[in-house]
């Protein structure tokens, strides 16, 4: 192909963002799958759909943890322990620390059966610590609804008169995390089976009794003698018969309840990891999904919205891409560096990796260059254009890469990983140019599971950093839910 037509091909592909490359053409073998004319979000080579379902990991209790897909299931935590052990306190601490996620607390107490007038007359003889005191069927129904992402009306229980409020309910909406708390939440197997994680709050019995006397006196309208009487007749025996035997089901036991900040921090960390971990990350350990926060979801909501304006699309894309670039840079090696601060103190720090470059897959990958330049001053950025010729599946690859690319770590840029075909061809080229596979970090905003399978199977040592993994590809190889033609939307050429 003469130079002129190559120039034309590049020119028309990159539009206003053409940056004057010296071109070299490579003729590749015809790919086995059909290809589409534009970016990697819709290019050739679908995987068999079975690949995803074969590989998908399922949680121990059957619940799939797929935080970024519409099939997402909430993470359910059970918190049990004796009365006044600090269950509610520990739950409040967890909720406070998980502020980036929607968390709801369901109290088993809400499902106490209200006493009849007759039972109320001799409430002091009623055993509130026996499993039959709860309407477990109703609790299961309510949890089932929440797990199916449906809102529920939770009863409101009044400890002062042992009744449910007949006309009021607490409306609870679907959430990322559901915490189910109560003295007997580990007693019933069907309730246990709902849980992804079980925590037992283990507090000394004397401390619990002291707290209970104080609390029931102040908050539940009880006299000290009635609390002591109830404790000896019902609370203590039921603790030994039902609560303590259920401790064996716990995954985590927290001594000292809410005083144990280390345990609460570790639990919160674990929940965060589980929430941020797509099943594909368990299968392919080199796939990293940036920790999801409401800010990140908010930015995705904006750029995925078909009605967003181009300036907003560009603004929020740039913000998201910077986060991905920063995350990607975190995977580079560093050297230790000691400096002296203006206070004359020594600071033990690290020095950035200098042998680095970016490579964008033209044209949509060019939209990531600004964010990369903003994070890495003066970084060299190469380009790869994969160009389809005619309808017979033949492709040409043009590239302009730094001369010493084989000695550099490469941040490969393409905002959407669709089928994985364009990405694979670009990675192939980099490897042929001498870049070791493990030195390539592929940065994208959205990945389709099919693309992850395709790239990770072929290049298991390469790293992928993305911000969301979508549901899959449509029959036309478009990422679903996706965000359409990224390059057109970013460069304002989508009319
Ligand atoms: N670490 C703690 N130190 C002092 N008081 C506590 C502590 N944890 C809980 N409490 C108090 O003890 C009482 C029972 O705690 P709570 O968290 O409601 O226990 P539970 O839900 O297990 O019955 C409450 O009045 C609470 O304020
Ligand atoms: N009407 C009621 C209902 C329950 N109790 C006691 O509450 C305890 C469970 O609540 P915690 O917050 O302490 O876990 C349980 O031990 C019941 O004895 C009650 O006194 N009156
Ligand atoms: Mg409580």
Describe it.
This protein is an alpha/beta fold and about 500 residues long. It has 2 domains: about 260 residues, Rossmann fold (3-Layer(aba) Sandwich); about 210 residues, Rossmann fold, CATH 3.40.50.2020. The chain is about 35% helix and about 20% strand. The chain contains 16 helices and 22 strands. An 8-stranded mixed sheet has the order 1-14-13-12-15-17-19-9, sandwiched between helices. Strand 21 and strand 22 form a beta hairpin. The longest helix is centred in the middle third of the chain and has 20 residues. The chain is elongated and about 85 Å long. The structure holds adenosine-5'-diphosphate, the ligand Nc1ccn([C@@H]2O[C@H](COP(=O)(O)O)[C@@H](O)[C@H]2O)c(=O)n1 and magnesium ion.
For the record, the CATH architecture of the largest domain stands as 3-Layer(aba) Sandwich
Compute the CA-based radius of gyration: 29 Å
CATH top level of the largest domain is Alpha Beta
* Strand coverage percent: 15-25%
Number of strands: 22
Distance between the termini: 32 Å
Q: If strands are numbered along the chain, what order do they take across the biggest sheet? A: 1-14-13-12-15-17-19-9
Q: In percent, how helical is the residue content? A: 25-40%
How many domains? The number is 2
State the shape: elongated
Mean pLDDT: 84
Can you summarize the main beta sheet?
Answer: 8 strands, mixed
């Amino acid at each position: 192909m003469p130079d002129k037509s190559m120039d034309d091909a590049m020119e028309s592909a990159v539009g206003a963002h053409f940056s004057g490359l010296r071109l070299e053409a490579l003729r590749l073998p015809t790919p086995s799958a059909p290809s589409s004319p534009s970016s990697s979000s819709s290019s050739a080579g679908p995987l068999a759909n079975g690949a995803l379902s074969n590989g998908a990991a399922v949680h121990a209790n059957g619940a799939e943890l797929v935080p970024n897909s519409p099939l997402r299931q909430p993470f359910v935590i059970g918190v049990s322990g004796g009365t006044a052990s600090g269950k509610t306190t520990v739950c409040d601490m967890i909720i406070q620390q998980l502020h980036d996620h929607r968390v709801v607390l369901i109290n088993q107490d809400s499902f106490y059966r209200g006493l009849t007038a007759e039972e109320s007359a001799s409430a002091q003889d009623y055993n509130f610590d026996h499993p039959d005191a709860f309407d477990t069927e109703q609790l299961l129904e309510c949890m089932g609804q929440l797990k199916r992402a449906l809102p529920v009306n939770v009863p409101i229980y009044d400890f002062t008169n042992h009744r449910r409020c007949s006309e009021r309910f607490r409306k609870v909406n679907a959430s990322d995390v559901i915490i189910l708390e109560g003295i007997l939440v580990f007693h019933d197997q069907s309730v246990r089976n709902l849980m992804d994680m079980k925590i037992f709050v283990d507090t000394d019995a004397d401390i619990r009794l002291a707290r209970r006397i104080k609390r029931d006196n102040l908050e539940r309208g009880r006299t000290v003698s009635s609390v002591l009487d109830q404790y000896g007749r019902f609370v203590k025996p039921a603790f030994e018969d039902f609560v303590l035997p259920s401790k064996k089901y716990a995954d985590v036991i927290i001594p000292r309840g809410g005083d144990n900040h280390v345990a609460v921090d570790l639990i919160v960390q674990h929940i965060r990891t589980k929430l941020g971990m797509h099943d594909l990350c368990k299968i392919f350990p080199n796939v990293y999904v940036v920790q999801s926060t409401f800010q990140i979801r908010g930015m995705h909501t904006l750029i995925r919205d078909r009605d967003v304006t181009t300036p907003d699309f560009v603004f929020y894309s740039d913000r998201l891409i910077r986060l991905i670039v920063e995350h990607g840079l975190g995977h580079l090696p560093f050297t230790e560096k000691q400096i002296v601060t203006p206070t004359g103190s020594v600071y033990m720090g690290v020095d950035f990796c200098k042998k680095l470059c970016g490579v964008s897959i033209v044209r949509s990958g060019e939209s990531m260059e600004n964010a990369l330049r903003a994070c890495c001053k003066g970084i060299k950025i190469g380009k790869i254009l994969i160009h389809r010729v005619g309808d017979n599946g033949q492709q040409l690859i043009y590239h302009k890469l730094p001369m010493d690319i084989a000695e550099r770590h490469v941040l490969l840029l393409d905002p959407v990983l669709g089928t994985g075909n364009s990405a694979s061809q670009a990675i192939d080229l980099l490897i042929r140019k001498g870049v070791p596979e493990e030195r390539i970090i592929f940065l994208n905003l959205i990945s389709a599971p099919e693309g992850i399978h395709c790239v990770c199977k072929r290049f298991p040592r390469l790293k992928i950093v993305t911000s969301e993994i979508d549901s899959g590809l449509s029959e036309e190889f478009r990422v679903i839910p996706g965000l359409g033609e990224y390059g057109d939307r970013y460069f304002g050429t989508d009319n």
